[in-house]
């Protein structure tokens, strides 16, 4: 059986209920819109999530910890709730009279105390009204459309976690110091280049600017907000910015420059213009260039670098992707990323993916960031990122940016520093490839 509940909707609900996964027990279009079919498939199973769908596009239902039965009695459950989806958001309506949270109707499907019943009296219908058991607005929950096109019941099961992390990480302050020192002492393999230039590309709100702020924070010793960040439907970054991270306040620049771009948007003529990517990669675009989605960079723009050398070019591309939204990435946005990847591939520039917001993606990781590589859920999301962007799983690096904190966290720092080290290793691959090319040319001569 294929669940109708999308993977994003499943994750959104599971994030409210602990470290769980959903297993589909009953699907009305397969097993029948009858109370008998529902009870045969679902009785004695718990906890469960019951979901109704109508032809107005509403997705709604209820959750209970108690097993269903045909007893004809009410059941107590102080954790039960009704829900509906409003876009990507989950709206919950907790039980207000726990003694009447459920009614075990032998002739109907899931019945939440008469307030919401799916498959009422063995018909593809919704029944119920707001009252003293659950309080909700029917127009918000199902749009007053009482005709069911589908009804599903899922059992919640504890999500499996790896006993040992599938990527080993040392979570110690000494390791953090060691990683910081190795970054400070890093030197590009080409004498003409003193700093690795890394291009950050990603959708609006994925965390490109926040990644720079977070890396800057690690080396400053406190949370900083040099690059503008926040919540917005459109990109807050409107200029091409090159950020040099410094080793402490007033310290020397580190051997890495993070180049921030305007956020990608799915609509044509919005966000970063894909045609500007080539100019950036080749080192033509000046710092603080003002992006204009409808026009590309022209050679007569002030600061345009007409004869860029290797030190001006991009040595590694890092795609910044929100892990909590990868499964609902719009098709047009995915196509834009694919177009950019083709350009980057043609220039043989190494690429990796920074998967952000891992704490919002998995409640297990939100509880303890050190469990990131024990989470099967995070690994699944990394595999999905790998497949959608056509990069190796070894090139997908999960991170948590600083966004609401005042103080640094050693474990977050270690993830962020690991990302920088992977970026520098990728740049080494790029410089190695250039050296091989030059050696071959010299040999032929």
TrEMBL record:
<dbReference type="Pfam" id="PF07534">
    <property type="entry name" value="TLD"/>
</dbReference>
<dbReference type="InterPro" id="IPR006073">
    <property type="entry name" value="GTP-bd"/>
</dbReference>
<protein>
    <submittedName>
        <fullName>Interferon-induced protein 44</fullName>
    </submittedName>
</protein>
<dbReference type="InterPro" id="IPR006571">
    <property type="entry name" value="TLDc_dom"/>
</dbReference>
<dbReference type="GO" id="GO:0005525">
    <property type="term" value="F:GTP binding"/>
</dbReference>
<dbReference type="GO" id="GO:0006955">
    <property type="term" value="P:immune response"/>
</dbReference>
<dbReference type="InterPro" id="IPR027417">
    <property type="entry name" value="P-loop_NTPase"/>
</dbReference>
<comment type="similarity">
    <text>Belongs to the IFI44 family.</text>
</comment>
<feature type="domain" description="TLDc">
    <location>
        <begin position="1"/>
        <end position="157"/>
    </location>
</feature>
<dbReference type="Pfam" id="PF01926">
    <property type="entry name" value="MMR_HSR1"/>
</dbReference>
């Amino acid at each position: 059986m294929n669940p109708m509940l999308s993977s994003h909707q499943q994750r959104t609900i599971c994030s409210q209920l602990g470290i769980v996964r959903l297993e589909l027990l009953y699907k009305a279009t397969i097993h029948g819109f009858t109370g008998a079919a529902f009870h045969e498939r679902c009785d004695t199973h718990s906890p469960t999530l019951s979901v109704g769908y109508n032809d107005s596009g509403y997705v709604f239902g209820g959750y209970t910890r108690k097993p269903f039965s045909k007893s004809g009695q009410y059941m107590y459950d102080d954790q039960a709730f009704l829900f509906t989806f409003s876009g990507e958001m989950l709206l919950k309506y907790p039980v207000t009279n726990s003694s009447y949270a459920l009614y075990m109707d032998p002739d109907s499907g899931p019945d939440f105390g008469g307030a919401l019943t799916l498959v009422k009296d063995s018909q593809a219908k919704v029944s119920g009204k707001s009252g003293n058991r659950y309080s909700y607005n029917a127009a918000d929950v199902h749009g007053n459309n009482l005709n069911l096109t589908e009804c599903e019941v899922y059992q919640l099961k504890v999500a499996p976690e790896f006993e040992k992390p599938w990527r080993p990480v040392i979570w110690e302050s000494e390791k953090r110091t060691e990683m910081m020192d190795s970054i400070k002492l890093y030197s590009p393999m080409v004498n003409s280049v003193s700093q690795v230039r890394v291009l950050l590309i990603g959708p609006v709100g994925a965390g490109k600017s926040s990644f720079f702020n977070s890396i800057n924070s690690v080396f400053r010793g406190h949370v900083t907000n040099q690059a503008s960040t926040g919540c917005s439907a459109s990109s807050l970054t409107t200029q091409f910015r090159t950020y040099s991270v410094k080793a402490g306040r007033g310290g020397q620049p580190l051997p890495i420059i993070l180049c921030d771009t305007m956020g990608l948007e799915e609509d044509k003529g919005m966000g970063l213009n894909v045609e500007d990517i080539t100019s950036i990669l080749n080192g033509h675009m000046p710092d603080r260039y003002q992006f204009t989605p409808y026009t590309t960079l022209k050679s007569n723009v002030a600061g345009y670098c007409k004869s860029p050398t290797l030190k001006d070019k991009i040595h590694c591309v890092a795609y910044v992707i929100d892990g909590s939204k990868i499964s609902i990435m719009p098709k047009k946005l995915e196509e834009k990323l694919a177009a950019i990847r083709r350009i980057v591939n043609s220039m043989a520039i190494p690429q990796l993916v920074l998967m952000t917001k891992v704490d919002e993606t998995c409640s297990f990781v939100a509880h303890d960031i050190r469990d990131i590589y024990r989470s099967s859920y995070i690994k699944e999301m990394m595999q999905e990122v790998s497949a959608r962007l056509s990069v190796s799983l070894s090139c997908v690096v999960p991170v948590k940016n600083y966004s609401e904190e005042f103080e640094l966290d050693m474990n977050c720092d270690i993830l962020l520093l690991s990302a920088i080290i992977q970026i520098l290793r990728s740049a080494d691959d790029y410089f190695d490839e250039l050296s091989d090319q030059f050696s071959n040319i010299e040999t032929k001569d």
